Amino acid sequence: METLITAFFNLGILRETAPYLWAGFKMSALLTLVVVPLGIAGGLAVALIARTAFRPLRWLVVFYVDFFRAFPPLVLLMFIAFGLPFTGLDLPAFVSVALAFFLNTSSYYGEIFRAGIESIPRGQFEAARSTGLGAAQTMAYVIVPQATRNVIPDLISNTLEVVKLTSIASVVALPELLYAARQAQSITYNATPIIAAGIIYLVCLWPLVRLLSRFEHRQIALH
Amino acid sequence: MILDVAGLHKSFGDLEVLKGIDLKVAERELVFVIGPSGSGKSTLLRCCNRLEEPTSGSIRVEGVDIMAPGVDINAVRRRIGMVFQSFNLYPHLNALGNVTLALRKVLKKAKAEADDIGMRALVRVGLGDKAKAYPNELSGGQQQRVAIARALALEPSIMLFDEPTSALDPELVGGVLAVMRQMRESGMTMVVVSHEMRFARGAADRVVFMDQGRVLEEGPPEKIFNEPEHARIKEFIASLNG
Amino acid sequence: MGKFAQTFLNWEVMAQYAPKILEGFWVTVQLALAVVIAGIATGLVLALARSFRVKALNLLIVAFVDVLRAVPPLVLIIILYFALPTVGVRMSGFVSTWLALSAILASFAEEIFWAGMLAVPHGQWEAARSTGLSFLQAMRFVVLPQAVRITIPPLTNRTIAITKGTALGAVVAVGEILYQAQSAYSFSYNPSPLTLGAVAYLILFIPVVWFGRWVETRFAWKR
Ligand SMILES: Nc1ncnc2c1ncn2[C@@H]1O[C@H](COP(=O)(O)OP(=O)(O)O)[C@@H](O)[C@H]1O
Ligand SMILES: [Mg+2]
User: What is the ipTM of this complex?
Assistant: First the structure.
């Protein structure tokens, strides 16, 4: 027990490394705040383009979605972070990470919005068009608001995954929470910072997990 | 003529659903359309505001050829009110929001003015007190009246009704028909697809019987209902009453 | 264009490292299969255990599920691989990745199975039993088919997403595709092995993504 506490819950180490972890936490939060809205906007765009009458464009979108869903995000991230500099495009780590996340998450959010839009009955389009609303107006004021509402649990669930996924940015040395924790560990030779990072994730995301679990049971019970 | 349909054909793939329809509707006229299920009644109405794209033929609304290239179809649609069997209210907006959406986004009216017009439309259908209610808080009959108000608020020159009472419980039908009757009295031009024969006898100027994508016979209600030329129509009407 | 090909599609480099990537391919396949089997089996066991409705046990299961849904996979892997040794528990990178991903999949699978069991309304049981079906017959012909329909699409999607997490093993030196590609890249200082690795992932996962799509349409509820 004693060893466990010294190894994992060492308050002295925690106090010493807290500033690192705090900086890492802020970076993770910033990354989340950039990556989630971008992904949602991209996903919405993907879902809307997937509905255009122009077939080649639709195929292109399906290809885009499947392509980036097939890539493990870490592979995509490494490819961008290590590969792009060879093209002469030396992006800052934060930008590479944001780009990789955009490609990955917009595919997932896109699938969610697509399903949401498909769940809206045809009558809603027809009613809107019959009052003279244009195609874009119908989407903006009638279809997308309803579609979004129908897929809120899926959006939250995916957002939870995205927030967790930001931890892979540590692999390309973006100083977010996990990276800071590992640095702190290698300096102190103590695992407390890593455990602390795990606990920080747990504390921040647990409410979301509870909320989702409630949603999921209710949603299925409605069938 | 408010509405002038000539030689209208519509096919879905190999299936020819409308096989040359001619239909003229004059101002302030109420034309009642009946016919067996699948005869093309809904398709006809939906072609009139190009929710379905006609295969051939011409459709004029207030003299404007709505099939002409370059026609502003959204402007045309706003002049043609449409009421659906399944109401199709927007579930995320309350009654007033349903009525004012097109006022604000198509006619670009300011919120206050749109709300004002919307409230008057809701009062006309007897739902002034339900402006803040969401569709799922309204009965079927009330929902359909909101849908009518949504179309009315745009001051259309003609209203198309596609079986407006078919999805309603019997006790709710009367309220919707009363609103339609009152619209008729105030001079609205209407095309009504319905099975409500009693309403037709009292309110219709003309009854059109459709069968297999064609107009089989048309005339005043007494004639079509009591002494049609086609035995087919007699059978159909008997089946409705039976 | 020639320079681009030289950089990203350098045949020489690719030919040199292709055997390594292939080796990684099989490691990825093994790891993925091990995760799927252990994760789904554990999830099913947990869901069944939960259906006995023993309060303490259920609390434990919910806690397990919540923790694993809230903590990022990479953090778990790093705790298993880098933190546990400090208290004398050592495991290979392969085992820590397998353990972390299996536990995560198990927690998702438990939730999905449990929700599926709850989703079949009691009236279905009553209707089935009232026509003289035995408990087992009612289970087999009425309840299970409905529960499975609800369960399969989300389970498939989750499984696919988590399986892609095998790439995280690269961080703890599991010799899977990404690890091989990355070390080849650092030896040759040419990103072609990364391209090769990316292609290997696409070969592995595009069919899986398509399978997921097929499952979704196959089991879609007619609303
Ligand atoms: N979008 C469509 N695609 C294919 N067939 C259609 C479509 N809409 C209607 N139909 C067919 O057209 C025929 C006429 O339909 P409809 O106009 O709805 O008849 P009614 O309203 O008189 O019952 C039916 O056979 C129907 O199956
Ligand atoms: Mg119809």
Answer: 0.90
